[in-house]
């Protein structure tokens, strides 16, 4: 009888919602509710919610999260401030019977002028699903006791209620006695929280005051010590502050907040999954690398393909911080690059809900997708799609930065409801087919349901669920020499001078070794930097043992001093490998007499051999020595430098590359060797990393933003950008893989009037006109590349001769932006003549003969901004 009554109520609710929605299905709702525009002020530090618990060395900042994927383990974390204390947690079925014990570990960290307390982490194992446990810690001095209930065993009809919160859960509200969001969530009786990023906002305080991590953790302890919170990293967790000497992203977060990432097959704590009751929850990282072939990309591909079982956990929920669909001008389209990379996967997987934060307001979308766009068809407006998820932006927890109340007008078709208020939401899963979602506005201290909707499961009930009930009412001068000694460390010294028989200077270097997989251990890899060199000067140098029998001698010429009319000739090579074709390419380039090489990524292709055979890194380096020992090669990393092979136990991206090939990144203010710049003659060359994080606020993003301001076109007029994955390519191979980076950075390069963008990856050749695609804003449909005299020429030169062969699948018809394309191996040269003109040539490898197949005169965008190329 009870089930019949519930079914009748559910049917009536759905029918009522369907009737209301059909009446107004054409447009979304922008709530007319207006919150008072008073300042968002921090609660005072002596507020009760920040109180340090009584007792000497009492455990504080207690919080729990899942210790495995399903909840049969729980990780308990806490801080002791006075001394280390005990790492033990005792637990059991009653507070008087804590008959089990687990031993944990501790960590500490320094951040600028702050040193943390002793941060403890302990995982309780062997738990039973859906069971209440009591636990205690602090047995050496002050004991504190808490409890939690494990989630039910994963099953298709297991009910569960999630709280959905972002952005500091109201630790910064106008009045000291109203931490509204958290209090309102607690009153709703949720079972666990899906936290979509931005915890303490410590980085908003002077010197990234990490004491604010402590106060925040004490503030939320009242909830997170009693139920698991599933953590997503937001931009305020980056804590990247090179001005303070802090260049390790996510340092406070990773020390304080563990995640069960290893249980999900992930290699980093920022992306992982859990299975709770009837839900499979995937957590993604908006501020880690997610381009094709990166660890996060590889993990998500496998997660969706092999580990999601909708028959067991029918509800598929995805968490991220930066929203993909957002009609607020604050942080508008900042999540676009990740959407471009992953949206089709989520639609194909029939994801039910995507939760995001970042934008400090609330918005819920209809089921829309924007997956038909292919760079030339103009299909770039989101369209209704029953397989698509509902996108919910809930960055409205109550943070210190205040409300984002600047919505775009008109409201886009994909937006169902939006309001600029603080609040939280709940998602109550009823069974395999239905879940009830409600958003609770903080209304002058009272919890008010302002938006609600029944969601139908995309796997078990794949119908359009645009039925909803809305209850809201209102709204140069140094050169680094590297070499390998295979058996012994030998000498780290380089001797150099102006004559081969008079090497009067010395430079002391260092050496390193690395292992890869189970069988390979490198030789001794030496790096030494020769300093105090003069511009435009030939130097001789020798490496190896001091006795002349084993020393080897070489020479190089330094680039001329930077100046606007200094001529220089670059060789342009990409995707070289070590085949017979590769040998032709290198020989032909040597015959061209270039001064230096801009290498556009994919060096040895060692990862194409069984076990990522790193001996191929050694053979490749011996192969190219005939050129690279005599002139500088400027390195760009490609996907074949990732060498990410968890099946071999290798989970550190770029391990062989970074051990072998140094770059002058520190000299250009970069914090990683993967992105940097050099200034050679009249050229400012910027190297970007396609397979490192480049989303907004990431280190690479911040560096490029500053670097473009440092470019002085009066001194180095030619602005050249190197990147591996092309932004404009009309070849079916790797088609549009560089799109997410283009979306992030193209406007910057157009505004900076970059002259040339060089890419590889696609194993053919192509040159474009000066085009751009910067008018698109997700809703206007303007998504076709158009002529733009301020835009760079894009050159794809991934045709060095690698083992994978040619990419001969050009798309037809040839796009307007494409000037010349050919599926052949070869190389190119760019000869800068003066500040206004440069001559470009592409040399085809034609049956072993160097043939000029394409050429053009380029006019400088800064000094000669007319289109004559």
TrEMBL record:
Residue ranges of domain Purple acid phosphatase C-terminal in the record: 388-447, 791-851
Keywords, in A-Z order: Glycoprotein, Hydrolase, Iron, Metal-binding, Signal, Zinc
Annotated signal peptide: 1-24
Alphabetized SUPFAM superfamilies for the sequence: Metallo-dependent phosphatases, Purple acid phosphatase, N-terminal domain
Catalysed reactions listed for this entry: a phosphate monoester + H2O = an alcohol + phosphate
Domain Purple acid phosphatase N-terminal, chain residue ranges per copy: 59-150, 466-558
Keyword Membrane: no
EC assignment: 3.1.3.2
Gene3D superfamilies: 3.60.21.10, Purple acid phosphatase-like, N-terminal
Calcineurin-like phosphoesterase domain mapped to chain residues: 182-362, 569-765
Molecular functions per Gene Ontology: acid phosphatase activity; metal ion binding
CDD domains: FN3 (cd00063), MPP_PAPs (cd00839)
UniProt family annotation: Belongs to the metallophosphoesterase superfamily. Purple acid phosphatase family.
Name the record gives this protein: Purple acid phosphatase
């Amino acid at each position: 009888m009870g089930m019949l009554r519930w079914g009748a109520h559910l049917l009536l609710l759905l029918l009522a919602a369907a009737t209301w929605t059909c009446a107004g299905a054409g447009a979304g709702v922008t709530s007319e509710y207006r919150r008072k525009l008073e300042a968002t002020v921090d609660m005072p530090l002596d507020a009760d919610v920040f109180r340090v618990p009584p007792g000497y060395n009492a455990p504080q900042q207690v919080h729990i999260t899942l210790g495995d994927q399903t909840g049969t383990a729980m990780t308990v974390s806490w801080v002791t401030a006075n001394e280390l204390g005990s790492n033990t947690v005792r637990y059991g079925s009653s507070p008087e019977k804590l008959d089990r014990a687990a031993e944990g570990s501790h960590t500490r960290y320094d951040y600028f002028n702050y040193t943390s307390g002793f941060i403890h982490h302990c995982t309780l194992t062997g738990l039973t699903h859906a069971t209440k446990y009591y636990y205690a810690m602090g047995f050496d001095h002050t004991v504190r006791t808490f409890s939690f209930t494990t989630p039910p065993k994963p099953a298709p009809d297991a009910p569960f209620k999630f709280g959905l919160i972002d952005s500091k859960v109201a630790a910064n509200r106008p009045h000291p006695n109203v931490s509204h969001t958290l209090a309102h969530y607690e009153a709703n009786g949720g079972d666990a929280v899906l936290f979509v990023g931005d915890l303490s906002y410590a980085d908003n305080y002077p010197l990234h005051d990490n004491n604010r991590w402590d106060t925040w953790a004490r503030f939320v302890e009242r909830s997170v010590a009693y139920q698991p919170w599933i953590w997503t990293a937001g931009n305020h967790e980056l804590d990247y502050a090179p001005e303070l000497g802090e260049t390790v992203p996510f340092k406070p977060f990773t020390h304080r907040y563990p995640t069960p990432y290893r249980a999900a097959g992930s290699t980093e704590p920022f992306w992982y999954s859990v299975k709770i009751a009837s839900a499979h929850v995937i957590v993604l990282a908006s501020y880690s690398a997610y381009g094709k072939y990166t660890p996060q990309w590889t993990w998500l591909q496998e997660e969706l393909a092999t580990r999601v079982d909708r028959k067991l956990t029918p509800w598929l929920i995805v968490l991220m911080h930066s929203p993909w669909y957002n009609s607020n001008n604050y942080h508008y389209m900042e999540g676009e690059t990740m959407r471009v990379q992953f949206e089709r996967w989520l639609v194909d997987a029939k994801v039910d809900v995507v939760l995001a934060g970042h934008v400090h307001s609330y918005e819920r979308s209809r089921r829309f997708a924007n997956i038909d766009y292919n760079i030339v068809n103009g299909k770039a407006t989101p369209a209704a799609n029953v397989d698509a998820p509902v996108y919910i932006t809930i960055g409205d927890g109550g943070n210190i930065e205040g409300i984002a109340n600047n919505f775009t007008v008109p409201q886009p078709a994909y937006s169902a409801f939006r309001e600029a208020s603080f609040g939280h939401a709940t998602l109550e899963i009823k069974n395999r087919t239905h879940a009830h979602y409600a958003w609770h506005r903080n209304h002058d201290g009272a919890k008010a349901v302002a938006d609600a909707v029944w969601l139908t499961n995309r796997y078990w009930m794949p119908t359009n669920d645009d039925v909803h009930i809305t209850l809201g009412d209102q709204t140069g001068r140094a050169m680094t020499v590297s070499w390998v000694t295979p058996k012994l460390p030998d000498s780290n010294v380089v001797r150099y001078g102006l004559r081969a028989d008079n090497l009067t200077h010395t430079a002391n270097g260092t050496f390193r070794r690395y292992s890869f997989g189970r069988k390979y251990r490198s030789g001794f890899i030496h790096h030494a930097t020769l300093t105090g060199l003069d511009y435009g000067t030939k130097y001789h140098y020798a490496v190896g043992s001091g006795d002349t029998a084993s020393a080897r001698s070489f020479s190089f010429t330094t680039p001329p001093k930077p100046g606007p009319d200094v001529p220089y000739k670059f060789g342009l090579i990409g995707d070289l490998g070590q085949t017979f074709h590769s040998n032709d390419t290198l020989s032909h380039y040597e015959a061209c007499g270039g001064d230096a090489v801009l290498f556009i990524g994919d060096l040895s292709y060692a990862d194409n051999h069984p076990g990522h055979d790193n001996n191929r890194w050694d053979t490749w380096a011996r192969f190219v020595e005939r050129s690279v020992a005599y002139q500088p090669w400027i390195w760009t990393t490609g996907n074949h430098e990732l060498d990410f092979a968890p099946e071999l136990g290798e989970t550190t991206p770029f391990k062989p590359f970074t051990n072998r090939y140094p770059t002058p990144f520190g000299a250009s203010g970069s914090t990683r060797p993967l992105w940097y710049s050099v200034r050679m003659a009249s050229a400012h060359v910027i190297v970007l990393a396609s397979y490192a994080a480049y989303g907004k606020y990431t280190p690479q993003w911040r560096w490029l933003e500053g670097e473009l301001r440092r470019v002085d076109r009066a001194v180095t007029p030619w602005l050249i950008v190197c990147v591996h994955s092309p932004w404009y390519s009309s070849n079916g191979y790797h088609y549009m893989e560089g799109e997410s980076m283009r979306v992030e950075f193209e406007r910057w390069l157009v505004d900076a009037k970059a002259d040339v963008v060089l890419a590889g990856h696609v194993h053919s050749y192509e040159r474009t006109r000066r085009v751009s695609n910067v008018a698109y804003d997700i809703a206007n449909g303007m998504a076709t590349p158009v002529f733009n005299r301020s835009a760079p020429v894009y050159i794809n030169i991934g045709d060095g001769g690698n083992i994978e062969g040619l990419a001969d699948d050009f798309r037809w018809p040839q796009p307007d932006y494409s000037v010349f394309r050919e599926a052949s191996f070869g190389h190119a040269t760019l000869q800068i003549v003066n500040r206004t003109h440069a001559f470009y040539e592409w040399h085809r490898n034609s049956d072993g003969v160097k043939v000029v197949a394409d050429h053009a005169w380029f006019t400088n965008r800064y000094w000669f901004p007319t289109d004559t190329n």
